[in-house]
Every structure is written in C-alpha cells, then in structure tokens.
Design a protein that fits this description.
By secondary structure, the chain is an alpha/beta fold. The chain has one domain (24-245): ATP synthase, F1 complex, gamma subunit (Pyruvate Kinase, Chain: A, domain 1, 3-Layer(aba) Sandwich), CATH 3.40.1380. The protein is built from six helices and five strands. α1 runs antiparallel to α6 and α5 crosses α6 (212-287). The two termini are 34 Å apart.
Length: 288
C-alpha cells in the first residue's frame, strides 16, 4: 500500500497535469475560432472560382489553345506527387496518426508507381524524413500562421514540375474540418485539373470579354494555388479542433483520477489514524 507521502506527490502531479491540459484546451479554443473562421470564409471563393473555371473550360472545349494548357494535360500516370499535410505539434489525439496511416495506404496502393512527397507540417517531415522516400520539399511549422504566399510557393513547384512533364499527377492529402468533433481525411486530385470537376453543374452562365485561352491561362494557376491554400486552412482548423477535444478529454480524465486518489488518500489516512489510536489504547491498557 502506498504511503501518504506517495499519494500526496501523485495528487500534486496529476493536479499540475490537469492545469496544463486545461490551459492548452483554452489556447486551442482561441486558435480554433480564428482558424475555423478563416477556413469557412475561404470556401465560397474556392467554390466560385472552380465554378467559373469550369464554365470557361466548358466553352473552350473546341478551342485548341485553351484546351492545350499544360495544367490540363492528361497522360499515363507513372510519376505522382503527393502533398501530405499533417500537424505541426502533437497532443491532438489521433489526428496525426490517422492522416499518416492514410498516406501509407496511398503509397501502398501506388506501389507500382514512382511517388514523391511534399511534406507540410513538422509531424509529416519527422515521419517521412526517417524513411526512404523521395521528397520534393519540406515545410515544417507552416501551420503556425497559414499564408497564401506559402501556398503559392508549394503550388508553384508542383505546377512547374507538372508542366515540365516530370510528374504525371498531383494529389493533396489532408484533414478537412467538418466540425469540432469531426475531421474528414480527404484526398484531393490537384493536377491535372479535370474540367468535369470544375464546371459547377451549369449553375451560372457567364459572359466573357477575353478569349478562352487568356482566361484559362489566368484562372488555372489561381485555382491550383487556391486549392492548396484551402487545404492548408482546413488542416490547421482541424488540428486545433482535435487538440482542443483531446485536451478537454485529458482534463476530465485527470479530474476523475484526482477523485480516486483523494478517496484513497483519505482511506489510508483514516487507517493510519485508527492504527495509532489502537496503539495508544493498547499501551494505556498495558500500563494498568
């Protein structure tokens, strides 16, 4: 049976841990509000840009100059670039492990192809840097402050290599933010841009002054950058949500442990007092 000193030490340790997890929960909640707002606000722009691009591409089907844009080139997929987005930190439940397992499944399913990795987030960099995979680029601590300039750099490298024919397809693997309790693992085909996915179902009929080839040349790179930026915003919000949920659960678990330890401490202390009383009574009786 542990002594009173051991129990008190453990209670202090659990109490300190509870204070830390509670503080981390509050910090994550504050960051989540900003990250969630940024992700939600960016969704209409990304959706409308994709709709407008699809409308232009539907009209450019007969235009060889527009339809022949390098980012629309579809060829046999032998070389793939996977942009893998994980978290910058841990203590967020199964957030990083689930997305990492999804990346391993993707690599296993495409084992007959040459796959390169673009690693976004410290956890992604730490995991695959120790393994023998071809890495196109590393961007750790990128989710501390998600900026469009970073998305432009990453998407620019992907578009450059795709246009040069060095890779045949580009995918983005990330956690999409659905709500505070749910993050959806999403595999997004980024390149080549597929017209069938961008037509928007004929929701709007636009009139354009510029010829289709100029519009396609302007909209396609912007669309790719927006998709990467949106994935980064979604992943950042999902990470904060997962961490807040995990820290809330840890705080409640620490409270339950404290209750059990306090009850055990009281029982041990009561038993110790009872033993001392019995010893005193026995000693007094022996003196009579």
């Amino acid at each position: 049976m542990p002594s009173l000193i051991d129990l008190r030490r453990r209670i202090r340790s659990v109490n300190n841990t509870q204070q830390i997890t509670k503080a981390m929960k509050m910090v994550s909640a504050a960051k989540l509000r900003r990250a969630q707002q940024a992700a939600v606000n960016a969704r209409p722009y990304a959706a409308l840009l994709g709709e407008m691009l699809g409308n232009v591409l539907s009209r450019a089907d007969e235009d060889s100059a527009a339809a022949g844009h390098p980012l629309l080139a579809r060829r046999e997929v032998r070389r793939i670039l996977l942009l893998f987005l994980a978290g910058d930190k841990g203590l967020c439940g199964a957030f990083n492990s689930n997305i990492t397992k999804a990346s391993r499944r993707f690599l296993d399913e495409n084992g007959d192809k040459q796959v390169e990795l673009g690693l976004l987030g410290r956890k992604a960099v730490d995991y695959y840097s120790r393994r023998s995979y071809s890495i196109m680029g590393k961007w750790d601590l990128i989710f501390k402050n998600v900026e469009r300039s970073a998305a432009q750099e990453i998407a620019g490298k992907a578009m450059q290599r795709f246009s040069a024919g060095e890779i045949d397809a580009v995918y983005v693997l990330y956690n999409r933010f659905k709500n505070v309790l749910t993050q959806e693992i999403t595999l997004l085909p980024l390149l080549p841009v597929l017209p069938s996915q961008d037509k928007g179902g004929g929701a709007a009929d636009y009139e354009y002054e510029q010829p289709p080839e100029k519009l396609v040349a302007a909209l396609l790179p912007r669309h790719v950058v927006t998709q990467v930026h949106q994935a980064m915003l979604e992943s950042a919000a999902a990470e904060h949500a997962a961490r807040m949920t995990a820290m809330d659960s840890a705080t409640r678990n620490a409270g339950e442990v404290l209750e059990k330890l306090t009850l055990r401490l009281n029982r041990v202390r009561q038993a110790s007092i009872t033993t001392e009383i019995i010893e005193i009574v026995s000693g007094a009786a022996a003196l009579e």
